[in-house]
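Researcher: I've been going back and forth with a colleague about how Heterokaryon incompatibility protein 6, OR allele might be arranged in three dimensions. Neither of us has a model we trust, so I'd like an independent prediction. The organism is Fusarium oxysporum f. sp. cubense, in case that matters for your notes. Sequence below.
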Amino acid sequence: MVSSPYQPLRSSNGQIMLLILHPAFQLDAPIRCLLEPAFLSSNPDFEALSYTWGDPGNGCNISLSNHDFLVGDNAAAALRRLRWKMMNRVLWIDAICINQADVDEKNEQVPLMQKIYGQAQNVLVWLGEPTDGSILGMRLLQNRMASVGWHQWKIDQTYGKPTLPFFKSVKSSIAMMNRSRLIQEQINGEVRELLDRPWWRRTWIIQEVVLAKNIQIICGDEVVTWDTVASLLKRLRMTQTEVQVFGVKLSDRNIFPDRMYNLISGYHQQWHSTAGRLELLDVLYQFRILECTVAHDRIYGFLGIIHPDVATKISPDYHLDVPQVYHDFARTMIQVTNNLHVLNCTRYWSGVDNRTQQQKAYSVLEQSRYYDIHALIFDGPDKTPRRGWARLPDGWERIPSKKSLFRDNGDRTKQSSEWSPLEGQQAVRAEHYIKQRELSLGWSKIWDNLCRARVVYGVGETTREHQLRNEKELLRQKLSRLPSWVANWECPSRWDPKPLVNFSLSQPRYFASGNTTAELSDHSNPRVLSLKGHIVDEVRQLGPAWHPETERPPVSRKGIDALVQWETLGLIELPDCPYSGTGGRTNALWRTMIADYAGAGAADSDDWAYIETWYDRTGWGRELPDMASRGGNETATLEGEIRELEGVMHTQFHHIRPLPNVETRELLKHPGMNFSHNKKKYGGYIKRIYAACAHRSLLITYRGYMGLAPWNAQIGDKVAILHGGKTPFILRNIKGTEYFSLVGEAFVYGLMAGEGMSEAFGGARDINIL
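Model: Here is an independent structure prediction for Heterokaryon incompatibility protein 6, OR allele. You can compare it with whatever you and your colleague have in mind.
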């Protein structure tokens, strides 16, 4: 029998293993550690590591309590960097301090992670080993500007300067402007790369950081605090303007991939200011795009940051199949919360095109691999050609070096030459420098086992990647057999609409089932969800689904044919219209477009003019250009034209809702005269329209109601009010049976405040969903 460094733990008493990391003077010295049990109740001193497991690679043998123990490449790199020279360092690392071969121990230790990360003196975020560029990014975060300049010079000496020499740029004001921006982009791009490392896509990081008292971000030997990132981004945004219209960002010029950082920071602040009260479904839905090695962790990975009333009812069990975990979770949530919020998370996913967002290279050094950085370019008509960045033909690569070398990857010899394939060719159109982040055809961005990024051409699928893809496909097949009412947390789709319910609000936006609570009825089939409810209507007509290509709300409806068809369909007069006494179908339509809140939260009746302005019947809106495909000079011109849109909107708004005919003194006090007020309110409404309508269809029922249905709804589907549900739900009868399948949540104007509970819609019945 092979001996083990582990010993049984009394997990129920809060006992854990701590890792005693022995000191070393040399980075490559053997790693020696000791496992030592400790009770959390005794408040031991330790730091907790948050890192990416990733592909273990060849692994590294360490000495663990006098046993040879294999750890992954990235864990070994972290241990080497974290060692002190003279003293032991006490750490907690999940891959080592939990016996990963003992499923029962994992089940018992996972619930203790809330206390582990909450009690740790520091949570150490290990981003991985450094690159030449990442050192630049970390020193910018540290605000060591002299060191930034020195390191940037060293990089230029090794890999070649990404800009023309000053004396060559000074001949053109455009060239000078682009040179200045590119130098700044070289520095800022490395911060972007740090924010794009694999750590930011790992499920477990959320609770590890949210729970932390103090957070340090580490890359190689460089260390910064968590708040340093926010400080830098705030500083940069104060000095570099962003192109916005109605509060919607149009250009990625100064955007950092900091969405995950901001989300985690928000939850961290909320956790520490509300005595640890986060809504589980809110967290699960926000972070469902993250990656995890084991699909169980899409649930278990968040149990440490939710209310104990819920967390204590969900016991991690890695013995169970993933579909069973998701099934049990959905039923438990209904029983514990007495509402149907978990049903608002179900989305149709099978067969949906799940193409991920295009990868981006933020490092200027890596971008220069698929560009000739001294090619002949021009900025527009009648502009003198100049030297600058131009994309290389397919398959060609620049080898970063002090003197540029080029090679054709289609050439079997892979010989390099100082000759560029663009040399001697006609000048090509200049691109805005942020366009450089988009990889050329055939190029991929990959990370090694130590989390360092590089761009490569023609990389194929590795054996490990092929194995993981097959495992994912097998899991998808299993999950396709889930009951329709069970949310599939493993397979988010790019066509997932935003939930109508805000899970974190103490006062709900809607209360379609009044003050009822969800009660599960007994059923012999555990796959069946049996609830009390009312079938109140049936879908008679559906408008086309609206699937916007970007996450940027359109500034007007111009050019969106699907939404024009919605209006045509919604305004058809029907006999016995339920809206005849409440402003008619025109009122119902604009309120449907924003999924208007019920009760006191409803939009002011005068706000119809903002939606009418957005309908853009006169064509005041214009198609927004691709800011990333223009040269610097054209971009500056377009930015001014785009900002004029706000003034055009303001004028159009007053054509639709004229100002009152009153004395000048009173007129100046009128809210409609306030340009900033109108701009901000209009911006708020276009964001609400996007959130409500994106990836949904307009529905019309036989009773004449209109609303928003899941994009996959069908004519003949039923509109149901289920007890404990804040919104109506769309159900589909399973042919030849008494059962229904759940299509998804719905907004139905006129049924969002309990109206469907009246006797006019009949009494409650058992509704069985399979």
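Researcher: What would you highlight for our discussion?
Model: I'd start with this: Residues 11-121 form one domain. After that, consider the following. The chain has 23 helices and 27 strands.
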